[in-house]
Amino acid sequence: MPLTLTSPVFAEGETIPTKYARDGENLMPPLKWTGIPGGTQSFVLIVEDPDAPKGIFRHCAVYNIPADREGLPESIDTSRDNALSYAINDFGNAHYDGPEPPIGDDPHHYHFRLAALDVPRLAIPAKAGAQQIWHEARKHVIEEAELVGIYQR
């Protein structure tokens, strides 16, 4: 069974609820995955908007997710129990920042990309950017899954 990424709050190609956008509550949506490939030692998750006016805009990167996880609960990035690592997103924050496309733009597509890695941890310097995390993760990918949601203001 292939690695699959889903959310209970939006399906592939559907609208991301406002609650998970920057002009809503700015909560990270809950995510679940199945079909974890053999040899997985950790995961990395990145959220990107390729429709941004200046090119790909990265809203979040979570790395060193333990291999025994099968998802992330809503707003995991603000949880007091959170021991996960976050890269600096393109807003300059080390947490999830939801959709915030320019008002009047066509709908933007938000790609939630999960990668199963063959290493237990990425050796990344503190304050690394989301793009740097994804670049390093690509060297260790066993399998990837993607969930795309849309948002428009």
From TrEMBL:
InterPro entries with a match to the protein in the record: PEBP, PEBP-like_sf, YbhB_YbcL/LppC-like
Pfam family, any one = PBP
Gene3D superfamilies for this protein? PEBP-like
Q: Which CDD domains match?
A: PEBP_bact_arch (cd00865)
- The highest taxon in the source lineage is Bacteria
The protein's name in its UniProt record = YbhB/YbcL family Raf kinase inhibitor-like protein
